[in-house]
Design brief:
Blueprint (H helix, E strand, L loop, with lengths): L4 H8 L17 E6 L4 E8 L7 H13 L6 E8 L2 H12 L18 E7 L6 H14 L4 E5 L7 H5 L6 E3 L2 E3 L2 E2 L2 E5 L15 H13 L8 E5 L6 H9 L4 E6 L3 H17 L3 E7 L3 E2 L6 E2 L6 H13 L5 E5 L3 H9 L3 H4 L4 H14 L18
Parallel strand pairs: 2-3, 4-10, 4-11, 5-9, 5-10, 11-12, 12-15
Antiparallel strand pairs: 1-2, 6-7, 8-9, 13-14
Amino acid sequence: MALTQEHVTAALATVIDPEIRRPITDLDMVKSIEIAPDGAVRVGVYLTVAGCPMKDTITRDVTNAVAKIEGVTGVQIELDVMSTEQRKTLQTKLRGDRGPEKEIPFNQPGSLTRVFAVASGKGGVGKSSVTVNLAAAMASSGMKVGIVDADIYGHSIPRMLGAAERPTKVEDMIMPPMAHDIKVISVGMFKPEGNTPVVWRGPMLDRALHQFLADVYWGDLDVLLLDLPPGTGDIAISVAQRLPSAEILVVTTPQMAAAEVAERAGSIAAQTHQQIAGVIENMAWLPCPHCDERIAVFGEGGGQTVADALTRTLGTRVPLLGQVPIDLRLREGGDEGKPLVLTEPDSPAGAELRKIASGLSKRSSSLKGLHLNLSPNRG
């Protein structure tokens, strides 16, 4: 079989850009293909920006794909960087030619992305751990998932996911890093090295949220989760304004003091006219290591109390989606960047989180809010 450029191009079409998640041939990243008489192949590849953090991955994947072709005796990769004009063309190809105030894709007619805003009344109830594990469970089932770490002051999602890479910027479009097949963006990825605090006020918080939603290239997501800061402050209000279709997930513990505060966080939906997807009770009990008896370390009934109170306030049923038991491995997984639903999927906490994720993944068959493009028959 004579080795041709068509053979090499077909192989390169199997190479997926690790940030954009589309074939490099679709993204005009293949600069050149040269085939020597002895079967040696030289491939020129455009990187989106100089110093692209994914250049080693791209080099490896291109080399492996071309090396598999029958008749190839060697592969050499030459990297180049896109010009400003090429980057602008790529940006337009990915998300169209938008105006100066970029639109949030999840608000567009026909968007199939389901958005969940994960809220809590107070800190320390495990809201971020729940967010990360729900996202990981959904992604492991084959869904396309993203997380916005909207807890600007208390950002912790990158560590919990093990997302060490910094975002890449293509013109004014931000490519989010991926970890465990989850696209993630956080203000922590833009800070200088070190644990420096973010000292922002309301308008800056709102602007940051808009950039995370509009400037980031999310692609076609099935689910987007936002990890909100505790309480009902600026970010919660901005989410209601920027993403009016977002559904609220309320996380609480069984303790009545925490439940009362969580109820207030969920009640914001009555003023913003958002839907509450349900309540998740975290740290519901501790399994006794000797007899498996449930020990109510933080009391009992808080999750159901919040669900019942929100049902009365909103006039529509708010379900208790699940009760996640205390598990030391859940905390350890967060510190190590390894979600429990992936490392110990059959553990009591892992199984409960996967059950909750599965329930949330089932889209309602309701046609409410869906534009059917029908017109009345005037015959």
